[in-house]
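We modelled the chain as a single entity of 207 amino acids. Its sequence is:
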Amino acid sequence: MVGEFGPENVRVRPWLRHVPTPSGGLALQYPRRCLVGHELGPRQVWVGWHHVLRLPLLTCRRCWEHGDRGRAEWCLADPTHQQHGEQTEPLGLQLVAVPPPVAAAPGRIEVRLDGRVATDLDVALCGICRRGVVEHVRTDPQFRRRGLAWTAVAAARARGAGYSWSTTAVSESGAREFWTAIDFAADAELGRARYCEHMRAAWDHLA
């Protein structure tokens, strides 16, 4: 079976799209295009399971048949499916939410691979002002360019759905390319953190 296990360094994309079924439930709606841009009709995509990451695995048939197998396969991660430290399992890809010490102070989102932190970010959330600030995103060099940081950002934003978002300063060109690639600035403020009074009060409390 094509993609039964998938490549070890398969890319991951955050994805959560569900549509109603005739029976009244919800079914996962897959992306309309592959990583290269091919349209994914019913006969143009194979759907499987990545047994190492424990995630749905998609394979673009056109990419596969044309030999572009490095980009033919990718996994889908639900950014809303987040665990806490005591709930995590030592296998597969896990999104872990580490709560802040006090409300509105920075907490952390971790992407763990087989129990090891591959990517993490700091994020401050205020439920009163409905504001979120992403402060730092870090990825272990051996796990870069696999979509893990993108998935972590999506997980942070899932915790503040409908919030206004911003980030701390972005100076490196590579960092700007990352934020542009995930289209973060389309509805958020990049490089200018917009902390609210509750976030500042949290800092004072922890000082």
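As a brief sanity check on the tokenised model: Confidence is low (pLDDT under 50) at residues 1-6. The first helix runs from residue 61 to 65.
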